[in-house]
Hints:
This protein has 253 residues and is of the alpha/beta class. The chain has eleven helices and eight strands. The two termini are 17 Å apart.
Amino acid sequence: MSSRTPLIAGNWKMHKTGLQAAEAAGQLKGLVKQATGVEIMIAPTFTALYQVAQALKGSDIALGAQNLYWEKQGAFTGEISSEMLVDVGCSHVIIGHSERRLFFGETDASVNRKIQAALSANLIPVFCIGETEAQREASETFSVLDKQVRDGLKDFAFEDLSGLVVAYEPVWAIGTGKTASREQAQEAHQFIRSLLGTLFGKQFADAVRILYGGSVKPDNVQALMKMPDVDGALVGGASLDPETFSKLVFFKH
Length: 253
Ligand code: 13P
């Protein structure tokens, strides 16, 4: 048994207004009150962060953002800094999600700068990596993950990265209903952990949490969570409904 505390995280993507998000967060808070031995995080859209932070008061559910910009302040129209996220109550931030890489030009180099900005503001980065279907079919999964990890975490020392969470999200499994099999997830997670061991040492690799993301649902979460290197889930669709998401939080039951 690993000593890593599981983390079940909801990425609400571009869903829910402030009021809708606060209502869902309030419901979730009630539903997971009895949860023990698991950390929970939800990442609503920027405009809902304040209301959700208020709704989560008095609960252990952590608040995350879905992106940030690395500069502290300045003439960067439309961007949001790590300090602003901390100010609104965030403790976590998702960085390098495949949708940002695909639609918004995020690169390993920008991901690297964003992780640095998050860490220097004491935000926990949830660093997303994963291969596309074409890359998997071309047997490039491990080389893609290798590059994303090396470049995304370039120039960090292990002591800089404490708290870092990695999310393995195979792009072909996101929102498609096609989940990676637990063997596929385990194989990728093991590869990532071993690479992190090579780069930052065994102690870091043993402690870092690696979440799986891609069509996680109440009927597959338990099998995935049983795998030794799967330490949690980053959930899109199934995190939007508080009842469904709470079933993921109680994956052991
Ligand atoms: P789905 O759970 O909807 O497949 O989304 C996964 C994801 O992208 C979480 O970040």
